[in-house]
Write a structure and sequence with these properties.
- By secondary structure, this protein is α/β, with parallel strands linked by helices.
- It has ten helices and eight strands.
- The chain has a single domain, classed as Rossmann fold.
- The chain has an eight-stranded mixed beta sheet with strand order 1-2-4-3-5-6-7-8, with helices on both faces.
- It is globular.
- It starts with a strand and ends in an 11-residue tail after the last helix.
């Protein structure tokens, strides 16, 4: 379903009972809403959530910025390395405003929010700049952006910056399989056939590499959110793979130190993906911090008794 949000067309998917507790899922760099596994959505719906997935701007079926042409990535990444300001066509905070627009369009005043990777960065902005809209916060495999944190290895960075031989489905499929093998969970290797089918369906739905590059510029331009993290008031759970090669686990420990009251689930053998075997654990984490938020809410005022 396509809606208008923040003056853009945004593709959304809503699952679960209309009276369920709203849960907004925010996906990461270059990933479409379908990257949230249906099995995870089913787990969350079974726990009573109304689950909202959406394609971030410039990705999937949402409105893009193709008119801007191919981004100049080499110069931008050089500026990032030299710690100079990185120009970007939009900011992560703009993408957070898109998410607020999704909630507005659905008539949702407050929601639990879960973000993965770049989606976790966007979720941080939601909780920082729109605190009254976020009931609880789950941050999966993400970072504060602090520059002192360990960085991925050269092998991982090369895999992230590599491109497929062509935009033909077969070549893109080989490229994505190689990337996921590099950053995935060593203790939870995927079923190759299931992964291939999901990736092929995603590619056929949409493949927008320049949108991914523009999102990467938004990450680079955002910098270090450390000075803002003290503003996060929502109960927060940080979930991270102990074997994450893209965002090393020190980033999770850094977030827990900087967000008041945040708790950490560091998952052995998990990399930078959402393994099928770990989906119940992820759903439990989201449900637990949501319950924490419910318990922290003031009791609803009761009308005076007539007796």
């Amino acid at each position: 379903m396509r809606i208008q949000s923040n003056k853009l067309f945004i593709e959304i998917d809503v699952q679960g009972p209309p009276d369920g507790e709203p849960l907004l899922l925010v996906m990461g760099l270059g990933m479409q809403l379908v990257a949230w596994p249906d099995e995870l959505v089913a787990e969350l719906v079974a726990k009573g959530f109304r689950v909202i997935r959406f394609d971030n701007r410039d990705i999937g079926l949402s409105e893009g910025f193709e008119h801007l042409g191919a981004p100049q990535m080499v110069g931008a990444m050089l500026r990032y390395t030299l710690r100079l300001p990185v120009p970007a066509p939009y900011q992560l905070r703009d993408m957070a405003q898109d998410a607020i627009g999704v909630l507005d369009e659905l008539g949702i005043r407050r929601a639990h929010v879960c973000g993965a990777s770049m989606g976790g960065m966007i979720a941080q902005h939601l909780a920082i700049h729109h605190p009254t809209r976020v009931k609880s916060l789950t941050l999966i495999m993400t970072t504060s952006g602090a520059r002192h944190l360990p960085q991925p290895s050269m092998r991982v960075r090369q895999a992230l910056m590599s491109r497929p031989r062509s935009n033909e489905v077969a070549d893109v499929l080989v490229h994505l399989e190689g990337l996921l093998k590099t950053i995935g969970s060593p203790a939870y290797p995927p079923d190759a056939q299931r992964q291939r089918e999901r990736l092929e369906a995603s590619i056929r739905r949409a493949w927008r590499p320049h949108g991914t590059q523009r999102q990467l510029l938004a990450i680079a331009a955002d910098g270090d959110r450390t000075p803002l993290l003290h503003k996060i008031a929502a109960p927060t759970r940080v979930v991270h793979g102990a074997a994450d090669p893209l965002v090393p686990p020190a980033a999770a420990q850094d977030l827990v130190r900087k967000i008041t009251g945040a708790s950490l689930d560091l998952v052995p053998g998990m990399g930078h993906d959402l393994p099928l075997a770990l989906l119940p654990r992820l759903a439990d984490n989201i449900a637990q911090v949501a319950q924490q938020a419910r318990q922290a809410e003031p009791p609803t005022a009761q009308p005076p008794s007539n007796r």
